[in-house]
Every structure is written in structure tokens, then in C-alpha cells.
């Protein structure tokens, strides 16, 4: 790839943008590579360094679960030590669990999987995993911010539409087991396996960001670092689904009930988890073309989250240099873009901004329509349920309500208990005491 000439013409940009309006999973193609917009979910987390191995093994569990869920699509994997790519299944690739056991607390643990053989092209399905070194995870505030570890997934838009319920169960299960600080899901440019292509991706992001309010930017490597212009300092503006952890919620000085009340809307869905709230702005993500107006639901959520937003977030990861004719985000424009859902924003231009009217189905909801909240743990005020099973039950005690339960103390622990059946303890678990939790999915199948 070269950055000595313009990457695309104005006509090519318009063609790509029009294609995204028809199908928000479209790629721009050259003779050498293609870059695409993709649905994604990214998890940013801290971990207990005394249990660093358990975190590494959990990451492998999550990788294998996603691989099964997505239909075993991978063609390339990276070596967890050298980070060099190899054909999937190559003898040069070690067993991840055995490799993880050999790593020390001061070693990072990184591995990637993708269905795209061309390392310069955006993947259609991929999983990128990184556990940072212990000192980066535990860095004291007086010496700087802690760095996040991260897990990032890309997947096909049609696949998500066909598997959205299984995908949601998968995401909620990861949240319960990984206990992340921040999680984002929506649409973003899919970063290729090759690290250097981030420069090209950032050019497309800058141009498309003026055409779509709902295009997120999720540079997991650059945004996870413990520096002032990264996510450990503050969140970015969610476009669709977002995990508000209790740690960040407390920085808002709000209770869970106050968050729910602030987001009381017939199209917002909230899932209660052990360590926070999973919030979905409508039934599915949307790119929100600028000509349709500033979308209502992202404005509502971002108004709530504005006090904890990092307006200095680095969106590029690589800088602009002399002689490069391609436009990338500057610090000034990055701040404007991060605040695009604010009422006083001027992004992408004052003359182009107007508030989008609500969908016809949501413009006049029935007077008694309840807020769409799916609760796993204690329900919100005013919602009465005829049966309220105990949300958490210690191992060794009788099951209080027949149904499906799981415990973070054991991988793939989802199982059915009859009422009165003794719920077992998991001996020797790195998670400590065994606590069985009521599953939000009470079907007989799991992803």
C-alpha cells in the first residue's frame, strides 16, 4: 500500500457510501486488497493478575465458543509468541492452552484468527485477543493509567441477522465471565490482520464518518493503552450496544435504577448483568446516514454518558505526515466526532444537522407500553412478576426454581436444575466460591 497518492477519488467514496446504505457490510476493493465495514463487538477488560492463567484460558474458551458459533470459518491464525500468521491448522501453531500455561505474568498473551488469507484485507469473520502484561494491567494511578486487555470480533451482517439471539447469549455470557470495563457493538471498519493497514483504514474512517453517524471506530490496539487519549481514561460515544459497567456507572454518581429511568424508551432494551448493564439502542445496529438526521436513541444514551466520555480519544493510531494527501482525524475533528450526538454539536457541519424524527412505530406508542427490559437479576422498580426465582444461589444449596442456571466458576456450565435439586460446588475453581446464576435464556439450547 502507498500513501503518496490519494487512496480513492470522490466518485469512489460516493459509490462506497451508497453501497453501505443498501447493505451495511460492503467492501471497497482494489487489485491488492479490500477494506470493509463490518458488524463488530469489542470487549475491554482488566483482570486479576494473581489469576492471569485463568484469564488466558478463559480467552481460549471464548475463542473456541465463537468459532463454533460462527461455523468454523478461520483460514489463518497467528502464533501467540511471534505473532506471525500461519495457515489455520499449521503444525507451527502451538496448542493455545498449553502455550498459555508456559507464559509468565510479565508476558503478554496475544493471538488472532481470521477467514481472510490476504493479510491486508478486512476480514469477514475474525477474532483478535490480547491479555496485556501484569504491570500494564496493575499500573498504579500515580504512575499512569492501567491498560486494558481486549477481545474483538468481526462477523458477517447476514450471519448476525440469522443468529442474533445466539449472538446475544454469547455476548452476555462473556460479560458475566470476563467482567469487562467497557463493551461496544455496532458497525466499524474491520481492521485487517496486518498491523500497518491501520493507516489506510483511518483514511476511510475519516471520510465515511461525515456520511454516517452510526459508523464507530474501534482500534482495539491503540484504544486499550493506559494513556490519556485511550479508553482507560474515558469511554467513547456508543452507536448501538454498550456495556455500562458498575465501575464506570459509579463515576456518573448514578444508581442502576437512575440509569434505567434516564433511558426509559420503548425501543431501548436493557439487560441486567452481575457487574453492569448491557444497553441496546433498538433491535439492531444502524449506520444512520447523515441525510436522515441525528438519531434519537444515540443522543439519549450519549447525553447520559457525556460526563465520562474521553473527548481526547485517539482515533487514528498513526499520525499524519508531510506529503500524505489523504485526510485523517486531527485532535480537533476527533473531539467534534466524539460529540456528534450532543445537542450542541456541529458535526459534520451545522447546516447538515437536524434531529431525525422517530420511527412511525415509535412515534406514538400505546399508553401502557412497558419499557423493553430483559432482566436476569433483580428486576427494575414497578415491574411485577408472578414468579421471581432467586437470581443467585450458592453451590451446595437447593435450587429455588426449576430452570437453566450457570456459574462463572466453570466453563460451559449452563445446565437445567429441578426445584429442590442440590446445586453442586465446583471444587478448586480459580473464581473462588461457586455461585449459580439464573440464565436469561431459558431455552434448551445454548450457542
Automatic annotation (TrEMBL):
Residues 343-403 are annotated as: Disordered. InterPro entries: TsiV. It holds the Pfam family TsiV. It comes from the Bacteria. Residues 356-369, 377-392 have a biased composition (Pro residues). This is Type VI immunity family protein. It comes from Luteimonas salinilitoris. The lineage of its organism: Bacteria, Pseudomonadati, Pseudomonadota, Gammaproteobacteria, Lysobacterales.
Amino acid at each position: 500500500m502507498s500513501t503518496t497518492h490519494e487512496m480513492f477519488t470522490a466518485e469512489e467514496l460516493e459509490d462506497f457510501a451508497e453501497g453501505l446504505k443498501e447493505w451495511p457490510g460492503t467492501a471497497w476493493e482494489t487489485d491488492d486488497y479490500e477494506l470493509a465495514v463490518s458488524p463488530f463487538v469489542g470487549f475491554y477488560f482488566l483482570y486479576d493478575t494473581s489469576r492471569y492463567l485463568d484469564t488466558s484460558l478463559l480467552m481460549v474458551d471464548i475463542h473456541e465458543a465463537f468459532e463454533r458459533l460462527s461455523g468454523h470459518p478461520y483460514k489463518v491464525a497467528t502464533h501467540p509468541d511471534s505473532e506471525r500468521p500461519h495457515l489455520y491448522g499449521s503444525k507451527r501453531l502451538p496448542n493455545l492452552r498449553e502455550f498459555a500455561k508456559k507464559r509468565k505474568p510479565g508476558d503478554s498473551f496475544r493471538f488472532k484468527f481470521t477467514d481472510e488469507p490476504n493479510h491486508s484485507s478486512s476480514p469477514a469473520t475474525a477474532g483478535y485477543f490480547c491479555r496485556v502484561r501484569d504491570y500494564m494491567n496493575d499500573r498504579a494511578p500515580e504512575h499512569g493509567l492501567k491498560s486494558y486487555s481486549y477481545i474483538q470480533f468481526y462477523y458477517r451482517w447476514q450471519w448476525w441477522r440469522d443468529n442474533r439471539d445466539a449472538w446475544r447469549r454469547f455476548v452476555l455470557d462473556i460479560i458475566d465471565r470476563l467482567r469487562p470495563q467497557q463493551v461496544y457493538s455496532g458497525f466499524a471498519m474491520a481492521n485487517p490482520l496486518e498491523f500497518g493497514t491501520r493507516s489506510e483504514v483511518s483514511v476511510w474512517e475519516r471520510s465515511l464518518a461525515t456520511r454516517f453517524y452510526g459508523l464507530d471506530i474501534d482500534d482495539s490496539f491503540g484504544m486499550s493503552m493506559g494513556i490519556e487519549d485511550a479508553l482507560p481514561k474515558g469511554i467513547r460515544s456508543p452507536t448501538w450496544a454498550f456495556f455500562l459497567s458498575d465501575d464506570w456507572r459509579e463515576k456518573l454518581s448514578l444508581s442502576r435504577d437512575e440509569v434505567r429511568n434516564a433511558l426509559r424508551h420503548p425501543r431501548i432494551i436493557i439487560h441486567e448483568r452481575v457487574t453492569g448493564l448491557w444497553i441496546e439502542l433498538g433491535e439492531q445496529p444502524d449506520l444512520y446516514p447523515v441525510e436522515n438526521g441525528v438519531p434519537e436513541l444515540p443522543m439519549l444514551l450519549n447525553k447520559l454518558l457525556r460526563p465520562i466520555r474521553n473527548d481526547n480519544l485517539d482515533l487514528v493510531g498513526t499520525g499524519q505526515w508531510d506529503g500524505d494527501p489523504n485526510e485523517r482525524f486531527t485532535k480537533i475533528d476527533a473531539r467534534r466526532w466524539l460529540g456528534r450526538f450532543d445537542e450542541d454539536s456541529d458535526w459534520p457541519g451545522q447546516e447538515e444537522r437536524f434531529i431525525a424524527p422517530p420511527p412511525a412505530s415509535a412515534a406514538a406508542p400505546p399508553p401502557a407500553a412497558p419499557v423493553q427490559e430483559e432482566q436476569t437479576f433483580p428486576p427494575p422498580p414497578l415491574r411485577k412478576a408472578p414468579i421471581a426465582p432467586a437470581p443467585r444461589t450458592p453451590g451446595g444449596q437447593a435450587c429455588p426454581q426449576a430452570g437453566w442456571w450457570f456459574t462463572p466458576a466453570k466453563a460451559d456450565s449452563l445446565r437445567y436444575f429441578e426445584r429442590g435439586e442440590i446445586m453442586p460446588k465446583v471444587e478448586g475453581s480459580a473464581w473462588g466460591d461457586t455461585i449459580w446464576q439464573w440464565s436469561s435464556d431459558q431455552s434448551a439450547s445454548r450457542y
